[in-house]
TrEMBL record:
<dbReference type="Pfam" id="PF00480">
    <property type="entry name" value="ROK"/>
</dbReference>
<dbReference type="GO" id="GO:0016301">
    <property type="term" value="F:kinase activity"/>
</dbReference>
<keyword id="KW-0808">Transferase</keyword>
<keyword id="KW-0418">Kinase</keyword>
<dbReference type="InterPro" id="IPR000600">
    <property type="entry name" value="ROK"/>
</dbReference>
<protein>
    <submittedName>
        <fullName>Glucokinase</fullName>
    </submittedName>
</protein>
<dbReference type="InterPro" id="IPR049874">
    <property type="entry name" value="ROK_cs"/>
</dbReference>
<dbReference type="InterPro" id="IPR043129">
    <property type="entry name" value="ATPase_NBD"/>
</dbReference>
<comment type="similarity">
    <text>Belongs to the ROK (NagC/XylR) family.</text>
</comment>
């Protein structure tokens, strides 16, 4: 065993704090490069109490984790994931739909004022993509550049280039959920019509299912009468049982995803496109029409799909990480900014 001389500084194990700020839940975790998640604190997001109350809850939890896990460890930083749109580097929120009353809130400045520590804000979709790149599909395939779509209430999007989040000019890059799929489609909250998230988000699938009921979809109507109502999970079970109307909903959502992904493949020419979020659990229902549309509409994909003419194929795959991807992304963000990439970690405790 190597002996340390008197006065020699003994290296400390690096760790970080990550925060996933959602409209319903607030999750705060301590993360070690060697051990993965050390501890996670789950709190309700007390929106009704006001944004300052939410920030106070967050900071109290961060301080608790610093006290519990900071001894003998070097703090690499504090990463915080929030719903977008997010203006960087100021850390100012712009009308996040799940955080009413937070428009223009300078979240980063408020947190740093309480903690006396520098923090880094990032959109939750970017952090999910970062985690998938460093700890999920990207690590499995040895790829450090990817585009990720997260299918939830809306559709989040993150683009990772060379292991770093691509932000665009003002930090608002990655709004692929608002690509127009059908110009005459339903109105979107962004002010446009026929956006991708109006067809391929969990919210959209619920709407499409209810539209099918109007067209006499009896199986879906029976599902709507059940105590839990229509959820993407129950609708997927119905589709898997052979219900054609339910299968049609996922077929349409998959088509929309395929059209959107075809545009991304043609534009970005990245090696990997990942689809995550709760709705991605229905990958087997979404993927047939998704791949049919990508193959039809993207000549880049036809040339670069696995087995195609190009040496390195374009892969489109479901995400490897689960619901913790955004939290993990917040935790590993400080490591990537310090060029101490967590891709070298051999254990991730999720």
């Amino acid at each position: 065993m190597r002996r340390h001389c008197f006065g020699e500084k003994i290296p400390m194990t690096p760790f970080s704090i990550g925060v996933d700020l959602g409209g319903t839940n607030l999750r705060i975790a301590a993360y070690s490069q060697d051990l993965g998640l050390l501890e996670t604190i789950l709190l309700p997001t007390r929106l009704a109490a006001g944004r300052n109350a939410v920030v106070d809850d967050m900071c109290d939890a961060i301080l608790r984790l610093l006290k519990t896990h900071g001894a003998g460890r070097e703090l690499m930083g504090i990463g915080i994931g929030t719903p977008g749109p997010l203006e960087l580097p100021e850390g100012k929120l712009h009308s996040p739909p799940n955080l009413p009353g937070w428009d223009g809130f300078e979240l980063r400045r408020r947190i740093e004022g309480i903690l006396g520590q520098q923090v880094t804000l990032e959109s939750d979709a970017n952090l999910a993509a970062l985690a998938e790149c460093m700890l999920g599909r990207g690590r499995s395939l040895g790829i450090d550049s990817l585009c990720m779509l997260t299918l939830g209430t809306g559709i989040g999007n993150g683009i990772i280039l060379g292991g770093r989040v691509w932000h665009g000019t003002t930090g608002m890059a990655g709004e692929a959920g608002h690509m127009t799929i059908w110009p005459e489609g339903p109105a979107c909250g962004c002010g446009s019509n026929g956006c991708l998230e109006m067809y391929a988000s969990a919210t959209a699938v619920n709407r499409l299912a209810r539209e099918a009921i109007v067209a006499d979809a009896k199986g879906i109507a029976a599902l709507a009468d059940m105590p839990g109502g229509i959820t993407a999970r129950e609708l997927a079970k119905l589709a898997e049982s052979g219900d054609q109307d339910a299968k049609g909903v996922f077929d349409l959502a998959g088509r929309a995803l395929g059209i959107g992904l075809a545009g991304l493949v043609n534009t970005l020419n990245l090696p990997l496109y990942v689809v995550g979020g709760g709705l991605a659990n229905a990958w087997d229902l979404l993927s047939p029409s998704l791949f049919a549309e990508v193959h039809r509409r993207s000549y880049v994909y036809r040339l670069t799909q696995p087995g195609g003419a190009a040496a390195n194929g374009t892969r489109i795959m479901p995400a490897e990480l689960g619901a913790d991807s955004g939290l993990l992304g917040a935790c590993i963000l400080p490591f990537t900014l310090a060029d101490r990439s967590p891709i070298r970690s051999t254990a991730v405790n999720v």
